[in-house]
Write a structure and sequence with these properties.
The chain is of the alpha+beta class. It is globular, with a radius of gyration of 15 Å. It has one domain: RutC-like (60s Ribosomal Protein L30, Chain: A). The N and C termini lie close together (6 Å). Strand 4 (75-82), helix 2 and strand 5 (106-110) form a beta-alpha-beta unit. Strands 3-6-4-5 form a four-stranded mixed sheet, with helices on one face. A two-stranded antiparallel sheet has the order 1-2. 23% of the residues lie in helices and 30% in strands.
């Protein structure tokens, strides 16, 4: 599998340091589509605050990836669902840290979650 970043700077607005406009996945053998994953512990209890939920969320993503013999290096797309727009910066920092500084196409959407104490949810696409 080969990943090719497409992040044009002409004819379109510039991306920021924490994402790219597109990644082309050439010759993948398989894709993994991860459903909305939240910052819940093994008992289904959400972390008490945003930082705790972000830590749990990325731990959960890594566990799902491991089950498919993948790592965060296989992630090619992230969609974030945030309960509050004020969470955007912390969410972006957690994503960049979790991906070890690697940038991928990403979108953040402000939503009303099913439970008031669910602060953030991620969907991930990975390829191998």
């Amino acid at each position: 599998m080969k990943l090719v970043v497409h992040d044009p700077h002409e004819g379109i607005y510039r991306s920021t340091d924490d994402y790219v406009h597109a990644i082309e996945v050439q010759r993948p053998e398989r894709f993994l589509f991860v459903s909305g994953t939240m910052g819940l512990d093994a008992m289904g209890v959400p972390g008490p605050h945003l930082d705790a939920q972000l830590q749990l969320l990325w731990s959960n993503i890594r566990a799902i990836l491991r089950s498919a013999n993948m790592t965060v290096d296989n992630i090619v797309r992230v969609t974030s669902y945030l309960r509050d727009g004020a969470y955007a910066d912390k969410n972006a920092r957690a994503r960049v840290e979790a991906l070890n500084g690697r940038t991928v196409p990403t979108t953040a959407i402000i939503v009303q979650t099913l439970e008031a104490n669910w602060l953030v949810e991620l969907e991930v696409v990975a390829a191998a």
